[in-house]
Amino acid sequence: WASYGYSVSEFEIWDLPAAQPEPTLGLLPEPVSVQKHGGTPFTLHKNTRIVAIGDGAQAPAEYLAGVLRPSTGRRLPVVSQGWGPAPIVVDVGPGNGPAGHEAEGYTLTAAAGRVTIGAATPNGALNGVQTLRQLFPQWVESDTVVTAGWTVPAVTITDYPRFEHRGVMLDVARSFYPVNEVKTYIDAAAQFKINRLHLHLTDDQGWRIAIDNPGDNPSGIDYGLLTGVSGATAMTYNAAGQLMGTELGVTGHYTKADYTEIVRYAGENGMTVIPEIDMPGHTNAALHAIPQLNTAGAQPHPQPGQATVPHNGTGSVGYSSLDAGSAVTYEFVEHVLAQIAELTPGPYLHIGGDEAHVTSHADYTTMVDAFTRTTASLGKTVIGWNEYAKTALPQGKAVVQFWNGDRGAVAAAVKDRGAKVILSPAANTYVPQKQDPRQPQGGTWACGGPCGLDRHYNWDPGTFIPGIGESSVLGVESALWGEFIRRVGQAQYYSFPRVIATAEVGWTPQARRDYTDFRTRLSKAGGRLTVQGTNFFPTADVAWR
Ligand code: TNX
């Protein structure tokens, strides 16, 4: 980092050419339209106020203040009237922001005496806040006061997303992330306008969300065992008995209050939480904890932390199944999904449906059809991994998340059952895949070698599934599976900078995307991530500075 803590001698100053204008604003993701005025920049005044105008402006204004106060040391009061010197105005209301893009669009104008963010919605204004943050010097990310010139170049930006879903998935089942680590992960992703947090809450190795006993409990299941027993397990060894990752998998679970706090914090960051209960495979943690689920047709395994079937050199999947022939299965699933639905304000419930390798096709269809019906009856839109594309699916109300395999089946679900699609192709969005040969651990199965930044950037979600229109694509999602990744520092190390590529794939119009330009903009972000304390892998493809 040339810009990180070095001092320039007088000789060097004599040798330097005249200051060049910054070639790039370094915005990530690249906005729809940016006009640089070349005029006098905006300079934060010691008495700058953040002026919140209109319903819903308060939260994004406070968010901005939260970013700016620690590093600038300014008071930056959020007010609703009285602009004072060099104000930053956050104006939310009908008619603001780019027409036709009300949900998340914004306009941002920076000039000598004022910055104005205009949006029709709080989420649109928050997107403008995230852009403004990147227009300040990188030191704005510091959590202690820095003496810097707090200026913003004179620009006019009009911006809105290409896709409504720009997600990150955190596998908290294989290795747990306590609430504060999830918040740290949210902080890092939200600055790039990621707006969905998919929590993979259950898998073979652990069950991470508290479920209470219902009043009506015909099989007498003790739901407290889910977290009592399987909150205390995690992914630890592979099939060969070798330690997965550099440490033991982290155990733990979220209480309902913890989960609600994650939902609240995500919302403050413009992110909707999508909970996943993975079924009918990937259910060993439930089978391990709940005796009533262990019937003749179920496929349990005694130790959730251990693998039995080698999988892609990283772990093991596909060895467990719920029993399609047992009434307890449906009683259990209905109860769990009802409680998850009640806890979740967002419109989606993810039921997994992937890699049910020990479930017969008939049993799979029977169970998944029942689970999608249950989800619909709870008033939620069901999401499942693409294996479930061949099941009935509620007409016009299902979402298929593609990761690998049969694209034709996804196109058919769109055509005959009106499904929408989230794209998480393993080669383009899976972050536990190595991004560089120097990365010590990581899969290579998705790309037949490292899945570098280029693979995460150079693909088009609009044409990925042949035969469907772009309007059937909800968006894109980066997936952090957790077989060997431990703690948020490692999660960030694998996620960044590739999540930034996914953020731009989901946000920026295809015609404005260019990998060379992206790498130039990204080269500046290394310092920004470093100052804020976000871990990232310094991929060789970028001239970090
Ligand atoms: C496949 S991707 C899985 C996960 C694993 C991942 C990486 C998907 C829907 N299922 O259970 O963690 O590969 O090994």
UniProtKB/TrEMBL annotation:
The keyword Signal applies. One of its GO terms (cellular component) is membrane. It is an enzyme of class 3 (hydrolase). It catalyses: Hydrolysis of terminal non-reducing N-acetyl-D-hexosamine residues in N-acetyl-beta-D-hexosaminides. One of its GO terms (molecular function) is beta-N-acetylhexosaminidase activity. The keyword Signal applies. Its EC number is 3.2.1.52. GO terms for biological process: carbohydrate metabolic process; glycosaminoglycan metabolic process. Belongs to the glycosyl hydrolase 20 family. This is beta-N-acetylhexosaminidase. It comes from Streptosporangium album.
